[in-house]
Amino acid sequence: MKGWLNRLINSLMLCALCVVLPATAQPSLWQYFKQTFVTSEGRVVDTYQANISHSEGQGYGLLLAVKYHDLAAFKRIWQWTQTTLQVRDDKLFAWKYREDSPHKGNIADSNNATDGDLLIAWALLRAAETWQQPQFKQQAQAIQRDLIEKTLVEHGGRLFLLPASYGFDHDKSLRLNPSYLVFPAYQAMANAFAGPWQRLLEDSAWLLEVSLHHDLALPSDWVTLERHTGRVHLDEQFSAEAIRVWLYAALANETAAERYPGFRYWQRFYQQQGHYPDRFDPKRLKFEGYAMPGYWAVSARVLEQQGISAESVWQQAHQRLLKEANNYYSTALYLLALPQNSRWLYGKPSL
Q: What values do phi and psi take at 182, rounded to 5?
């Protein structure tokens, strides 16, 4: 009888361990991200775009390293970013690196990408605070200074940052990208530095509003503003670019309904079809395709910002990600959207 009781107690203890251990015993998706998409030198590889690297990806890697308190990974990614991409005559970053590029240093395009610069500067500010290392803030300050100098533009009494230092400011129009409105980065810059950041944050809200399609109120991937008439022209495509509008607004703790007016249509599609779409086709006026798991995670984060339970969406996002092989962009979106201590951080995708 005593032996049976001991075996029962041991069995119950093992069961309790089974409940507690999986989240800590399993590899985390951040570990998977590092092993799969970050080289030993610190280059973040975009498998979604033929294994190039870009300032946006380096920014995501830095942000995730801070999020998961990984100083070693942060320093490695930052070292490669500084050495390889911060090679212009300012403190901004060449946006595109390709190993087979014939150009010096494998820089395939030396123009900057404003969202990448913002993400990197924001990550440096977070790192300075997280690890009490003031040099990171000093480096962020130099980046934001040159962003203002090289990309700030006025239109119709409003201020915007161009997508890059050249190529988007024309005599008759401006070409802007709503997904470059990295709201939490704008907030961080406004809190840390003097300058037009609060104004940019307010004027960017206007840009987002006018970028919405009149029918479904979805943000457009790209927007053109006519200089002389003030007219706004939308590309009308909603896909891999514009999904980040919702992500950045959610990460900035935005809960106002005007930030997400088209999300209800996106969510309605999910409720009717059982999955999220990949894009909105403006010609056919319908959602199409099947969303990658990262889109599911963004959707779950937006639902939570609106005070709506998203447990089932997180679960499906997690299950789909574990079945998805080698998709940098999807995994980055997932980890960026994921709450800090979520139980959905664990597991290893199939390769």
A: -85, 85
Catalytic residue status for 115: yes
Q: How far apart are CA 224 and CA 270, in angstroms?
A: 30
Residue 56 is a catalytic residue: yes
The strand ranges marked E within 162-300 are 173-176, 223-226, 232-234, 279-281, 286-288
Is residue 258 pLDDT above 80, yes or no? Answer: no
CA angle, residues 43, 111, 295, in degrees to nearest 5: 55
Nearest to 294 by CA among 308, 306, 276, 268: 276
Tokens 């050249």 found at: 166
Q: CB–CB of 347/29 below 8 Å? A: yes
Q: What is the pTM of this model?
A: 0.92
Cβ atoms of 263 and 314 closer than 8 Å? no
Among 56, 117, 221, 241, the one annotated catalytic: 56
Beta 232-234 vs 279-281: how paired, if at all?
unpaired
What's the rounded Cα separation, in Å, for the pair 310 and 260? 16
Q: Which of 115, 146, 203, 221 is catalytic?
A: 115
Spatial distance between the Cα atoms of 152 and 165, rounded to a whole number of angstroms: 9
Distance CA 224, CA 169 (A): 10
130-161 per-position pLDDT tens digit: 999 999 999 999 999 999 999 999 999 999 99
- Return the H-helix or E-strand segment holding 41: none
